Amino acid sequence: MATRKMILDLDTGIDDAMAIAYAVAAPDVDLIGIVSSYGNVLTPLSAQNSLKILELLGQQDVPVFLGESHSSTTTQFEVMPISAQIHGKNGIGEVSLPTAKRQPETKSGVDFLIESAHTYGKDLIVVPTGPLTNLAKALKQAPEIQNEIGNVTLMGGALTVPGNVSPVAEANINQDPTAADQVFESNLNITMVGLDVTLRTLLTKNETAQWRKLNTVAGEKFADIVDYYIDVYKITSPHLHGCALHDPLAVGVALDPSLVSTLDINMFVDTTKEMRGRTIGDPARLTDQHPNVSVALTVNQDTYLKRFMTYLSELFSQN
Questions:
Q1: Is 196 designated active site?
Q2: 11 is a catalytic site residue
Q3: Average pLDDT over every residue of 249-273
Q4: Which of the four, 84, 104, 184, 192, has the lowest number of CB atoms within 10 Å?
């Protein structure tokens, strides 16, 4: 049993699936649960995808919880066409996996976040790779957890590069900028792993071919899922020559912050119509001597990719 405990808060699409695999395979943390969110797919499908991926990886003991089904300022959510294109309508590259033998827990994802903060305190790492709706709601219900949780390492935002759904906004933050702003302006210890670094951390079919050579079900299925992702990137971002490891990079940085260089700065999220979802320094707190956000600016992609492939290949070889 590792001292550090991790909760993933996922809208389980393809890179989220790789984030699950990384968290499961990492030897220095226990994945204690997954909270489902909306974004790449609807929340119920996100939960089912997480359960299927866990089962594929032989991890039937990791509980999955249902989080919020829409943003804090809307009453329903519809998947964006670009998300369905990138991840497939089923969220996992149109690859068929067996129906999971388990169902999501009856406890809500928000309650699970709060209870885990009380139980594990500074040993708890929360990694949201979708909208920040669940975490913002947990903060509203139990403000004390902002001083209990050890670290929140989120995949979202963009500081030094353009957004991917607008000139200023990254998709996860854009789904619920109000919730994101509440999280950024809390006392949480936050690391932002945004497009600044995730677009530099790429996977190609050279790597997925290595998974196929393992001749295991997990290796074959993950190769199928990620090859779909890579093929879509050839259409949407041909200049990258691979697919970005958005969500699994956040897991990697949560466990080893030395993978990235960072800027410590107080942040806020713009919620105005013109700049919706922009993650930027907070002018009202620029002179604060103890900023709560570390923004990743550069990444040692070679070290990370080697570790990523080692972890996942060893895991897939067993399943």
A1: no
A2: yes
A3: 96
A4: 84
Task: State the catalytic residue, choosing from 181, 227, 246, 247.
Answer: 246
Give the total number of structural domains in the chain: 1
With pLDDT > 70 as the criterion, what percentage of the chain qualifies? 100
- Considering only CA atoms, which of 201, 198, 224, 200 is closest in space to residue 211? 224
Domain extent for 61: 5-317
Q: Which CATH number does the domain housing residue 43 bear?
A: 3.90.245.10
**Out of 9, 11, 181, 270, which one is annotated catalytic?**
11
**Residue 198 near residue 237, CB atoms below 8 Å:** no
**pLDDT at residue 70 tops 90:** yes
Backbone angles phi, psi at 113, to 5 degrees: -60, -45
